[in-house]
Amino acid sequence: MHEAGHTVVALESGMHIKSVSVSESEGDIGCGLRAEFEGTTTPGPYELLRSPVIKMWGAGERAEQRWLRENGLWTEDRGWAAELGALGDCQQAIPELEAWLGTTDEGTVLMNYAELGDQVEQVLDRNWVAVLAVAEALDAAGELTGDEAAALAGMPNPSAAVVA
After folding, report:
1. pLDDT confidence band for 70 (50 / 70 / 90)
2. How do residues 81-125 score in pLDDT, each as one tens digit?
């Protein structure tokens, strides 16, 4: 769900997607085995305003949290795990947001990040069926090209920006 959220929000914002993938493995953390999940949404070069890019980074967690709630699976522990899984996304988004806002004031930045997250919810509302379709195919295949994901979402995969 996390990567499908990234992918669909990116596509709607006009970002080219090269590929999207998920994988699962087990890792020994010293006190036993732990399932580890990893996912990647790989965009092509893009020339977008910062707000759509920041929304794309925030979409993974929002999609995952929504799916948990809608399926009666949300618990504090699962919600926390979804949030923890999105830390890398947040680390990408916050510097962009600070540059966009022209401030590093934590309260201002986090308030704006939350507001952009609320806007992500609206994008997910409009495209939830597409997110589910991409997530189902991604779960089955483990990897999709951007064109495959776009076709499943019923959206175009915009051309990548030309990088000089």
Report:
1. very high
2. 999 989 999 999 999 899 989 999 999 999 999 999 999 999 999
Question: Using CA atoms, how far apart are residues 14 and 156, in angstroms rounded to an integer?
Answer: 9
Query: How is residue 65 written in tokens?
Result: 């949290």
Pairing of β 17-28 and β 143-145: antiparallel
- Residue 84 has, within 13 A of its CA and on its CB side, a CA count of 8
State the helix-helix crossing angle for 76-85 and 87-101, rounded to 10 degrees. 60
